Amino acid sequence: DPKTPFYTSPRFLPPTKIDNCKFKDAIISHGCFLRECTVDHSIVGERSRLDYGVELKDSVMMGADYYQTESEIASLLAEGKVPIGIGWNTKIRNCIIDKNAKIGKDVVIVNKD
């Protein structure tokens, strides 16, 4: 509607890096890192990180406010902590994932009726 414009802030993010992923009816935002994951009927917000084997279906992932470097991620994993994003082999269905969420590896989150 021209009478009520929608304003947003400009973002100067790099393009999303996609490595061997499958998408179906998905919206992927800027600055994401997606590795061998499947995104089906979902929205992936800016700066999101989806690791190997992640399945995101019928969900909205809000993204992140900042990046973690590879060395920060390695340090967190060595300490047994979880970095921002979704870890290896995690399955998520029918969910809304808030900003800066930390979801570990081999997790299953399914919102059933």
UniProtKB/TrEMBL annotation:
This is Putative ADP-glucose pyrophosphorylase large subunit. GO terms for biological process: glycogen biosynthetic process. GO terms for molecular function: glucose-1-phosphate adenylyltransferase activity. Belongs to the bacterial/plant glucose-1-phosphate adenylyltransferase family. InterPro entries: ADP-Glc_PPase, Trimer_LpxA-like_sf. It holds the Pfam family LbH_GLGC. The gene is agpL. It comes from Zanthoxylum schinifolium.
